[in-house]
Design goal:
mainly beta; 6-stranded mixed beta sheet; 3-stranded antiparallel beta sheet; 9 strands; globular
Length: 190
């Protein structure tokens, strides 16, 4: 959708970015210990996300893997935010909660994405109000966007209404997060 924005508009807005400091990882949960390692076999930390996981490809959700969570973990949460979005707050690309602590990974396409059903996980609404992976779709000429993939270990499972958004997720997680980890993927349109 944003690929249709004229290049000159994207360039004019290039100074406007939500900022990494506004992501849940660096704002709401900044004091939580980094006890998890989050990786992807599709891209390295700080590297470009392959086009097949973006709006310039089929938009399939990427595979992710993580290290063992802290003892006593009841559930995990995955949250993906675009810190480069030209919006006041980061754009939410994925919310998934109550992942089993022993899962260790989600495969390529396991998370619902446009045109793909996924594996039936507890999902919240992304910024486009859909309970699925929102493929990266930065405006042409806006520059590089940093997509912060975040994983959180919880001491107890979440009981959220189906399709909850970022606010309800963060409220449910407060005083319940025992560890975290992150992976940054980048994407830009020339």
């Amino acid at each position: 959708m944003l690929e249709k924005m004229p290049h000159v508009v994207g360039e004019a807005l290039s100074f406007l970015k939500a900022g990494i400091e506004k992501t849940a990882y660096h704002a709401t949960f900044r004091d939580v210990p980094e006890t998890l390692t989050l990786t992807s076999p599709a891209f390295a930390d700080g590297a470009e996300i392959p086009a097949r996981f973006t709006a310039d490809g089929p938009g399939t959700a990427p595979p992710l893997a993580w290290s063992a969570p802290p003892p006593g973990t009841a559930a995990l949460v995955l949250l993906v935010e675009d810190a480069g979005s030209p919006t006041p707050q980061p754009l939410v690309h994925l919310i998934a909660w109550n992942l089993p602590p022993d899962a260790g990974s989600v495969g390529e396409g396991a998370l619902p994405s446009p045109g793909r059903r996924g594996d039936g996980l507890d999902l919240g609404k992304n910024s486009f109000l859909r309970a699925e992976w929102l493929p990266p779709d930065p405006p042409t000429g806006h520059g590089r966007h940093d997509y912060l993939f975040q994983i959180y270990a919880l001491g107890r499972a979440l009981h959220l209404p189906e399709g909850s958004g970022r606010g309800a997720l963060l409220d449910g997680m407060r005083r319940n997060v025992t560890g975290k980890g992150s992976l940054t993927g980048t994407y830009a349109r020339a």
